[in-house]
Amino acid sequence: xxxxxxxxxxxxxxxxxxxxxxxxxxxxxxxxxxxxxxxxxxxxxxxxxxxxxxxxxxxxxxxxxxxxxxxxxxxxxxxxxxxxxxxxxxxxxxxxxxxxxxxxxxxxxxxxxxxxxxxxxxxxxxxxxxxxxxxxxxxxxxxxxxxxxxxxxxxxxxxxxxxxxxxxxxxxxxxxxxxxxxxxxxxxxxxxxxx
Length: 195
What we know:
The protein has 195 residues and is mainly alpha-helical. It contains seven helices and two strands. Strands 1-2 form a two-stranded antiparallel ribbon. The radius of gyration is 19 Å and the shape is globular.
């Protein structure tokens, strides 16, 4: 466990934790399984990872005057003019392992930005109206919240796929040996009282 008494270290630890938790949700799944749409709007596990890696590359790159070393691997902003969902699915030429590797490299790039700048370092988000001024602290919080939300999406999609649940790889925070069918039945009966 890291020393979280330093505010910057604490924020950074939460960001890295959300990143790793999200990637973990793809463990043991095939290319088809990670690409398969799980919601009415097409959400899929690999698409969530691709979206999040592009989010991190953007917020910890151009916002602070930095460019990811291989920008051609990212979804360019111009792609959204043609397809507003361009970063929410893996193309045929992209693979699960390739996108996970890219996300790890993007994570290292984001970590460098955080390591090199103070929390009050100024930045500007190019795609926000009026190129809104921000600080590194605000961006770390913004991206951490975004990743946590999408990790939650991935939790639900993975649970729907194979009932794999849990907060972290080594700490599920889910009771062991719990009678889940009985629990679901109990909740259904409670809900039925209102229907």
